[in-house]
Amino acid sequence: MCKDSDEMKNELGNSKNDPANPQVGTSRVQLFGAGPLQFGVSEEDVATIAHWRPPTSLPHAPEAVLGVVSIQGRMLTVLDLARLSGVDAPTKESYTKIIALRGDEQLAVAATAMGEAIKISPADVAVGTNGSERFVRGIFSPSGADIRLLNVSELFSAALHGRERRRRRF
């Protein structure tokens, strides 16, 4: 689902650019790589960045789910964004970091490389994607390379590919 530009601007910050205050509407984004792809995630969505440790695999999990790992006392499901995007996934030995995300879904993403944290404005982001990556809010290109901005609220449902989540029955 593509978002309209006003909706995108509201998610990234204030949509009004104030020439007197260039900080209005900007947000900080942590850059990282997942195999051949580059991603960015809002720093507000990052709980912590930890050194890589192999997750414990889950039986019958979708291909993009690497397993679970404990970080800061939280059990997190680790996702491989390259596999989720449908490109060749890196080997497990090439991961260097785990980015633990905030939110109720208890998710983390595996990173093969860490970049810097940069400031972006809503005007920097091209809204919409090819449709197959609903977990991507938009794409921006600060240095010519396409960087996908994560939509953290869509990661879990994208990883499950329509599978029904197990629920406790009382």
Query: How far apart, in Å, are the first and last alpha carbons?
Result: 35 Å
- The number of distinct β-strands equals 11
- Taken in chain order, the helices and strands follow as HEEEEEHEEEEEEH
Query: Tally the helices: what do you get?
Result: 3
- Percentage of residues in helical conformation: 10-25%
Tell me the radius of gyration: 16 Å
CATH level 1 class label: Mainly Beta
Low-confidence stretches: 1-11, 13-23, 164-168
Average pLDDT level = 81
How many domains? The number is: 1
Task: Provide structural commentary.
The structure is a single chain. The chain is mainly beta and 170 residues long. The protein has one domain (5-10, 25-160): OB fold (Dihydrolipoamide Acetyltransferase, E2P), CATH 2.40.50. 11% of the residues lie in helices and 36% in strands. The protein has a six-stranded mixed β-sheet, covered by helices on one side. A five-stranded mixed β-sheet has the order 3-6-7-5-4. It is globular, with a radius of gyration of 16 Å. The protein starts with a helix and ends in a 10-residue tail after the last helix.
